Amino acid sequence: MELIRKTQKIGDDIVICNCNEIYKSEIVKAINEKGLITVEEVGEVTSAGTVCGQCQDDIQEILDKLNK
Ligand code: FES
């Protein structure tokens, strides 16, 4: 729940990774364009999840939704 409280709503887009200010739209775009499957790959491409790691569950959730 902590993570959800911390995310900022900006229009329809939200910040998933607060450390690197990575928006959900950037993560979704990277996954779709490059066919990413793991949280690590998303980190390599967007840098999301590479600092404190707290947003990695949210990234995993996005991956699960897009890659099911
Ligand atoms: S919030 Fe994403 S690495 Fe810290």
Q: In brief, what are we looking at here?
A:
With about 70 residues, this protein is an alpha+beta fold.
Q: Can you tell me about this structure?
A:
With 68 residues, this protein is of the alpha+beta class. It has a domain at 24-66. The protein is built from four helices and three strands. The chain has helices at 2-6, 24-34, 39-46, 56-66, and strands at residues 9-10, 13-17, 22-23. It has a three-stranded antiparallel sheet with strand order 1-2-3. A hairpin with a 4-residue loop joins strand 2 (13-17) and strand 3. The longest helix is centred in the middle third of the chain and has 11 residues, at 24-34. The chain is globular, with a radius of gyration of 11 Å. The termini are far apart. The mean pLDDT is 89. Bound molecules: FE2/S2 (inorganic) cluster. Residues 17-19, 48-55 line the site of FE2/S2 (inorganic) cluster.
Q: How far is it from the N-terminal to the C-terminal residue, by CA?
A: 24 Å
Helix content: 40-55%
- State Rg: 11 Å
Poorly predicted regions: none
By DSSP, the count of extended strands is: 3
Work out the helix count.
4
> In which order are the strands of the major sheet placed?
1-2-3
H and E string: HEEEHHH
> Structural class of the helix and strand makeup?
alpha+beta
Instruction: Let me know the largest β-sheet.
Output: 3 strands, antiparallel
Rounded mean pLDDT is 89
Q: Catalogue the ligands.
A: FE2/S2 (inorganic) cluster
Shape label? globular
Strand content: 5-15%
